[in-house]
Design goal:
This protein has helices at residues 3-12, 16-26, 74-95, 109-117. The chain is mainly α. It has a domain at 1-27. The longest helix is centred in the last third of the chain and has 22 residues, at 74-95. The radius of gyration is 37 Å and the shape is elongated.
């Protein structure tokens, strides 16, 4: 199955599992190994009268109309790339973390009182 076929199926609304099943159903089937059986001796009986079997019509699948896969235009490809780029950028912005925090946290009243009661000194170098 070619890439254009897969893209057409995705645009038509097929899921990944459905496309995979289609691809597997098109894969060539390996023949089963033929097992050799020894002839079985059957006691001879009187020949039975011949039965006439009428031919049965074999059902054949109806031919399905084939559609030429539509080639995507350059504008459609560029639009898809632009959508993908904006999605990646939006995800990167949403997941970004600034080291040390975005803004320093404002001290609370409890922190100020603790600093007055027991001040902490920065180590001198």
């Amino acid at each position: 199955m070619e890439l254009n076929d897969i893209l057409s199926l995705v645009k038509a609304g097929f899921t990944r599992e459905e496309i995979r099943e289609m691809e597997l159903s098109q894969a060539p089937v390996q023949p089963n190994p033929v097992s050799v059986q020894e002839p079985v001796n059957v006691p001879t009986q009187e020949p039975a009268p011949a039965q006439v079997v009428e031919p049965v019509a074999v059902a054949q699948p109806a031919p399905q109309p084939t559609q030429a896969p539509a080639e995507p235009t350059m504008a459609e490809i560029m639009q898809s790339i632009a959508k993908l780029t904006s999605a990646v950028q939006a995800n990167a912005i949403a997941q970004s973390v600034i080291p040390g925090g975005a803004t320093p946290q404002a001290p609370t009243a409890e922190d100020m009182l603790a600093e007055i009661i027991r001040p902490t000194y920065k180590a001198r170098e």
